[in-house]
Structures are given as structure tokens and as C-alpha cells.
Amino acid sequence: MPDRKYRVAYLVTHPIQYQAPLLRLIAAQPDIDLTVFFQSDLSLHEYADAGFGRTVKWDVPLIEGFRHEFLPGLWRHGPVTAHRPFSWGFARRLRRSRFDALWVHGYARSANWLAMLWAKARGIRVLVRDEATLFSAERTGPRRAAKRAFFASLRAVADAFLAIGTANREYYLANGVEESRIFSMPYCVDNDFFALRAAEAAGQRDRLRSDLGLEPGRPVILYASKFEPRKRPQDLLLAYEHMMAQSGTVRPYLLFAGDGELRASLEASAARKGLDAVKFLGFRNQTELPALYDLCDVFVLPSAREPWGLVVNEVMAAGRAVIVSDHVGCARDLVRHGVNGMVYRMGDVEALAAALGAVTGDPGRSVTMGRASREIIALWSFCEDIAGLRQALQAVLH
Fold this sequence. Notes:
Rossmann fold, about 40% helix, about 20% strand, globular
């Protein structure tokens, strides 16, 4: 049994599908007494997602298996912004339950700052987790200077910073955070969920191919994300067009799963160019995605300013090769060039086309890369998250 139990309050805007299984595991730890405070219940219901350009309702449990409370406040059911929702009563709850530490997700929201300041004044240790990187936003010289000044205040309030990966750690270091105050709490998904669901889907792979109108034996390239400018799906379509013009006997399919503002223009472009092997599947929910991961030979995320890219974790857990731009945060930690996938310079369509050809042109190579993905992601799991959180708590509370 642990020599002490850490009482931890976690403050986050709303239930997040990626975080729910992690919170369940943390709550089950014998040395961590976790209470989650949500400022909004937006994601529990069908809601308008601006990135997907449609309403979304998640089909996985979001608040089961851990103690939680929804804070009272204004704008609790609308879009989440830097100032909305506005909640109250959190300080009273911190004081009443005598928490040892406050863990906040994100430092930009005014409500989070108020919570951190109140906790600091009462001697409650503050842990900050955020996903920013040096490339996740365009910052001029003056903005970089302003950011460092901002971090001077944040360092005075936060006792520890929880890094989601290498690029995030480098961002903290560049803004003056001491190495000794940064602890690794990597961005992860429920690897077992996606691995098991993909394995189950393998038995129905031929049926899914038939349902989608895909001929047997042809490789499949998959994109599954929002159709918005930052994700750069147009780069993938252009690279695919270039690859098809240069390839010989290999004729891969390109599947776009998702929705958003760019979908109509992408569909029109594919039709105009006669790319009949490009198919648009629409929005797919969490339980539907593993079957698509199992179906594909390689997954592509061509984003710009992507802080992490958790969909890459999911695909790797399903045992597939991945191609990402160098502006995808997880590239530094998860994608080993030539081993489990490829990393190319963001916006370089020719380089992306070459990567697509290299992976899809050799079926054995994509299979080998997929196995490597599964081995790499096995060491990037919720176990590492819990270990990092525990290490941070021990450091700030002893």
C-alpha cells in the first residue's frame, strides 16, 4: 500500500473522448484520489463541431469510472472559448475537499488562471498540462517576447509542467521553464481499444472493401480527420494525383474519412481530375474508426501547426504505417522515418507523393512498418502517463 494518498483536483473544460479512459485508470490508482471538475457538459450531447462542420455525438463513454462534478456557470452548453464557459464555485470545492494538488488542462483560459491563483494562495500545488509547441502557432519576434514574459508569470504560479511529448517539452524550455520542473505525461490513447477493435474488424475486412466498392488487392491510403485548412487535406489529394501519374502497376485507393469546410472543394477537385479511386466516407465515430485503420495500408496526416495528432496513436495501435508532416507534434516521438513510416517537410507535395509511392509500392514494406508502429506505441501508453503524473506529485509535494 502507498505511504500516502494524493488528493488531486483536475480542472478541464469538458469531457474529452481521448481522456476518459486515462481518467478511469488514474482514479483506480491506490495512491491517487482524483476528482475531475468539468466546466461544460457540451460533449455529452449532440453538438455543433466547427472543425467537422456538422453536429457530433460521441459513441464512447465520457464520464464513467471516475469521480466528477460539473461546475455551475454560464454558457455551459455552447462552444468552448478562452472565456466561455464561465463557471464559479471551484474555489469553495478546493477548500472543502482539502486537495493536495490542482492539475489544469490548458493555461490560456481565464477560469483556469483564477483557479491556479486561488490554489497557489492556499498552498495547493499546481500542475499544468498543455499541448503548445514552437510550431503550433505563428509567432513573430514580438509575440515570442510576449510569450516569454507571460511564462514568467506562469512559472511563478505553476509548480510543475506536464509535457505531452518532445516538441511540447522544448516549447516549455524555450520559454524559460526549468528542466527540473518538467515531467513527462505523454499524449496517449487507449491502445488496447484500438488494437482489439482493429483485430476484430479484420474478419470483416473483405466485406468492408466490398461495401466501399474497393477492388481486392489494391493498397489503401487513409486520411481521417477534419477537413479544415490547418489539416491540409488538399496536399494529400495533390500528392496522390502526382503519385498516380508517376506510378506503374500499383494503383492505390485514397479514402477520406471526416467532414468540414474543405470537403466540397476536395470532392469537386477529385471529380474534375477524374480521380475515381478517391472516395469520401463522411464523418466516422470512435467505434467506427478501427475498421478503417485495419483496412488501410498507410495513414497520412499532412497537417500544419498540429500540436500532437492523437489519430496517429490510434492507427499505430492498429498496426499500420504512418506518414506525417514535420509540423505534426507526435512526429518527433512516434514516427521513425523509414522504420514505421515517413516524415516529410510540411507543404512539400512532391516529398509526400514520394513517401506514398515508397510505402504503397511495396506491400511487404507497409506490413513491416505496421509491426514497428505497434511495437513503438506499446511504450507510449497510459502507464507512462500515470508514472509521469505520480513523479510530478512526488516532486512537488515532498
